[in-house]
Amino acid sequence: KSIGRLLGPSLGNQQQGDFSIELWKNAFQAAFQRLCPVRAAGHECGCLPVLARMVMEQCYARLDVAMFNAILRESAHQIPTDPVSDPIVDSRVLPIPAGDLSFGSGAQLKNSV
């Protein structure tokens, strides 16, 4: 389970980090399974793999935006100013505490999912 653990001082709460990693890993796996259940099971299929890859890249891009916006917030209770570009209102789903200017936890989260 070492891949699911966040390291370093940038994470305020290890349990929050572990929770957010598992949440995002499950979310990305669910999205991948919905795009192509056959490919998600590890088999080759005739669907459009480029389309699935593009959708997953967009999901990763949204995660990047969410983590960047979390860093910009001054507190965990601050409401997002733009709910379209920053739809995450529960700070517990991200490993980055609000206002903590460190990209370490975010990079570790992205690498694990």
UniProtKB/TrEMBL annotation:
Domain of life: Eukaryota
A Gene Ontology term for the protein's cellular component: nuclear pore
Cited InterPro entries: Nup186/Nup192/Nup205 (IPR021827)
PANTHER family reported for this sequence: NUCLEAR PORE COMPLEX PROTEIN NUP205 (PTHR31344), NUCLEOLAR PROTEIN GAR2-LIKE PROTEIN (PTHR31344:SF11)
Entry protein name: Uncharacterized protein
Species whose genome carries this gene: Opuntia streptacantha (Prickly pear cactus)
